[in-house]
Specification:
Layout (H helix, E strand, L loop, with lengths): L1 H13 L7 E4 L4 E4 L31 E8 L4 E8 L5 E7 L4 E8 L8 E8 L9 E8 L6 E9 L1
Length: 157
Amino acid sequence: MKFIYLLFIISIFACNENPKETSVTTTDSTIQTPATPKPDTPVKVEVDKPTQTVAPSKVYSNARFRDVTVQKIGENKYTIQGKGQIFEANFGWVVEDGHNEIKEGFEMTDAGAPEWGNFKFTIEVQKERPNSTLTLILFESSAKDGSRVYQLPIVLE
């Protein structure tokens, strides 16, 4: 009879409709877990809004330039940075649209070859034709004849 009476009391506590929190004690701390909701109770689920992430920059490299990235900082403005192993630390660049050279210049790294020197510069260039694609070309000038060597083309998006 005591067994049936004990079983009855346990079943009453098991069927209790009041949700309670259960506690699990670990060696570090106590963890509180909420009780399971009743099946007929609607559950409100909040979904975080997607956060705006910036796509990782493409990284460009060749024999004389490495870790080169381009960041668009304005409608017609770009920051270019990377490393170069350039003779006398001096390299050139040109922006073209496939037909014409729109802008050109020279920059320097902070160390000459055989060291890899860092560089960072900003250019502002505008398309001459709206449907054209701008390409930045980094290059080293040949010590022999001044021609472009080790050209690294980068499409400006």
